[in-house]
Amino acid sequence: MKQTLLSTAVLAALAMVPPAAPRHDRPHIEPLMQLRPVGEGADTYELLIYGDIGESWWSESVSAKSVAEQLNALDDSVATINVRINSYGGSVADGLAIYNALRRHKATKAVTIDGVAMSSASLIAMAGDTVSMPPTSILMIHAPWGGCYGNAKEMRQYADVLDTFSDSMADAYVQKSGKARADILSLLKDGEDHYYTGEEAVAEGFADAVSSDDAGNDEPDENARAYAHELLARISARGAPAKYAGMVVTAAMRGAPRSARAAPGPQAVEQRLTVTVDASGVSEAIASAIANQNPPATPAATPPADAGSNTPGASTMTEEEKKAAAKAVLAADRARREAIRNQFTPFLARADLDQAALARLQRECEDDVDTTVEAAGAKLLAMLGKDTTPSGGHQVGDGLTHDETVSYRQGAINAVLHRADPAAHPMDEQAAQFRGMDLMDMARDSVERAGRRTRGMSKREIAVLALQSTSDFPGILENVITRTLRAGYESAARTFVPFSRRAVLPDFKQVSRAQLGGAPNLKRVLEGAEYEYGSIGDGAEKYAVQKYGRMVHITWEAIVNDDMDALSRIPQAFGASAADLESDIVYAILTGNPNMADGKALFHADHGNLGTATKLAAALDADAALDPIAEARKKMLLQKGIEGRYISVRPRYLLVPPSLEKAALQITGTNFQPSRAADTNVFGSSLVPISEPRLEDASSTAYFLAAEPNTVDTIEYAYLEGNEGVFTETSNGFEVDGLKVKCRHVFGAKAIDWRGLFKNAGA
């Protein structure tokens, strides 16, 4: 039958699952989709999404229909859904449907990526209010893909269909990460597979935390091994980097569903997945690795891999299949070795470590095929900590005391800040020891202070060593960057603060704010009678804080070139940018006029907070037909609270664009001299003018009035608890010769009550 655009769209819905082998040759992977209560409480459920997404040829998958039906069956008492994912991905359409079904449910979604969340499974993970990833888990994002046949026009149409799916998927990643839509679309349309470890996903905003591994998943069963084996074949065929290939297999082995271990018997032997390989062309180590992939049900149940016979009931393999299995094991071992090397690499330049012993341990871990990546990491950690002696915390090492280290760092920090801004940071006694030293001199001094000789090293070698070693230099740079960033943030003008109320939220979940609108009326209580209850709120406005951020690198070139801008002006600009972001969000509420919880716009005739369109200067003209300030005061004073009682709201702030600043200053100024008594400015002392350029973009004639936020709610802005203001995080980058600096800002704002705000469109 001829392919049509409709049929290609259907194919695209299944485009994220690579073609599968025939069933009898395909490793049996039992999919798992369960929605079950957690413990005895009925308010928390667990949703397991394991296996391919979407209807498959044999219905061995997790379909959107099955997920949506079970989610819809939950009652309103369910407050939390813990979503656990271990999936290579699958249908884009089913992935989008599952994502939207989760987003629609009002419960809090806590997603944990047990093993891998790849392709459309990563899309589903973005539905989480929180996303946690163990260190050995993997997230992968890429473009939807598939195939079709037909003429050139139909194939171009098929490409357009795939792009449409990318556009639909992008919103989920944008909303979770806070990244620009263009950046997300580049991930979904560049044709590359983008892998992220837990730490990398958190840094990019796709996850919120790196959680601990599940210690209960340390004994993978044959399903887990089959799943890991197929995953390795799939990602190797797509050219996955070796760094991630090993981690993907580890994640799949750790995250795959576990089956109960029954006593071995004939039936258990028949169900085992056995690979028999002619070992004549394969080393003894590889044969051992193959045997390790297929542990015997009992010590005597499986003959040696090169015995030339099959276990009763096992699959009979062709020569080509044997070669493919050997290649897969070789690829797995290469990936394991690469992952182990990646763990050891950051410590190879450490002057305080025994490099010979470190290299010896690395070789042992790589050569022992039974040593997993996790086991190698544990051995490395044990080696790093074996010479650590607990103390009272005063001694640091190399004969240096804690006080000396603090004094050294503080002096260096002050010296760098003095060079950047002498007026704001005068040279003190601690900084004097660094007088005349540039960044390169400080890097050399820090390295030598840590016990490493720099004689004979190039400037580049010294700079890289200072940035990646245990010297004081990274801490000095981090402190300088943080202080200049905070200074830039605090110095930037935020004109919304006086008329808004500040709050702190405990997490990223939506919060409800009741409109107080005045306290309830007090009623007479007769002798012996009961007190009556009154209502304290008549509506609920909901909002949540969002995470924003960017990342830059302080490179070794910046150190060699003594680039002070990289340490002072760039972070200071980051800080000012964070403050500007807050103003953008708050003033967008006034100019955008969003809907409130009652379904009506913030400034609406039914809310009694819209004035008759009149130019602001009319307030200074006694002959004008209407005084707009007098009208605004009257309408605000006539606002009623929840029990129909006047709440006496008075305007305190006059918010204007720069075009109206002169009129605003005249209206609120006490120095205005009227030419006649009728022109006397009666409102001047009661209003505070605020001129804000962001209002100009929306209208050069509109102006606003706001009440004191302590009298009635106006706009509430909030930070995440423990993250008030802008912050930086730094890490030593192995991929980049330098220091990675991440600027993070968590902020949100919402209009809570219309009664304290008033707008006049002007004329």
What does this structure look like?
By secondary structure, this protein is of the alpha/beta class. Among the domains are: 5-217, 2-enoyl-CoA Hydratase, Chain A, domain 1, CATH 3.90.226.10; 274-384, no CATH class. It has 24 helices and 21 strands. Strands 1, 2, 3, 4, 5, 6, 7 and 8 form an eight-stranded mixed beta sheet that branches. Strands 11, 14, 18, 19 and 20 form a five-stranded mixed beta sheet that branches. α1 (5-13) runs parallel beside α5 (152-177), α2 (64-73) runs parallel beside α3 (92-104) and α12 (319-344) packs parallel to α14 (373-385). It is globular and about 100 Å long. The two termini are 66 Å apart. Mean pLDDT is 75; it is low at 1-29, 256-316 and 387-402.
